[in-house]
Records
---
Amino acid sequence: ETVAYDPQNVFARILRGELPCNKVYENEYVLAFHDIAPKAPIHVLVIPKGAYVSFADFSKNASDAEITGFTRGVGQVARILQVDGPGYRLLSNVGKEGGQEVPHFHVHIFAGRALGAMLP
Ligand code: 5GP
């Protein structure tokens, strides 16, 4: 099922500078910023600059350069946050049953406490 990209979603508005964010890192491929409602001591969102609804859309339709840029960007953000040593969790919710609320692809980085075993 193809879901059209909504250019008025909150992360699109952040990317355009129409809404503020607490920025961690930015390059030509990604923007990373603190989650407005953190669920861990460190809770950062990494988004691609391209208009992709979800991981499903991104993995299918993004260019190799965008996919590489995004993947390396997530790793760079983890290094900036200095969570490589203690460790962290990456999560991406996809679609309705995946619990995705904002329809612009994003990866959550959770860190800063022992996160425990993987949960569904
Ligand atoms: P998901 O779509 O993966 O369920 O989660 C979306 C995440 O975006 C939530 O953790 C929520 O707190 C965060 N969020 C929603 N609106 C904003 C916003 O305007 N600014 C920031 N920084 N985070 C937001």
---
Amino acid sequence: MSVETDPAKIMKQQVGVAAAARVQSGSIVGLGTGSTTAYAIQALGDRLKSGDLKDIKGVPTSFQAIVLARRYGIPLVTLDEIDHIDVAIDGADEVDPHKNLIKGGGAAHTQEKIVDSLANQFIVVVDSGKLVEHLGSTFLLPVEVIPMAVTPVMRAIVKLGGKPELRMGIKKAGPVVTDQGNLVIDVKFDRIDNPADLEKTLNNIPGVLENGLFVGVTDLVLVGEIKDGQPSI
Ligand code: 5RP
């Protein structure tokens, strides 16, 4: 395991390691995306290497997860090769008191929702800054859109009361492109009162592939925090 000195990174590492510790030998494991999940993937690799964990298979949620799984020696399978996922570990951008989430800060929410929803147990790994009373209060809601439909989808979102903006990449040189070759619209809603309804309404707009609301999917949230300068879970 890498040695971190920044308390924020140590905290992410601690929740990642704690989630990985819950995985049992022989499991099929959904591998999420993001900086917190990256520590969980690394910890799974460490457990495999030490012999503490045997015979797991990973189901990646992104190109990033594929790269990390290969780096840490986790064998990968596709959804066509398996009939269940035992446990998925993934990060989130916001978590409400009902364990509903906003995800997609890494533009990976479409594959994440497929894999995380299929898991018998879905474990979310976050720091305490991600906990909110109402979804949408700190983070824009990501919506993955087929490129030719960006303009009509944005108009439809405005009619729903959202403020959409196309997600741009580094130095705003061009839009962010997802692993599926699509674009991401980030939407500000003043308040998301009914995430279950909004999730369905957005996905019904022609051209939308998937949005970042995860409702009723999470089983367990592991929260890292910094108390008196010390990271803890
Ligand atoms: C990627 C995601 C990530 O899980 C989410 O953005 C959290 O990432 P991090 O752990 O780096 O804060 O949804 O699409």
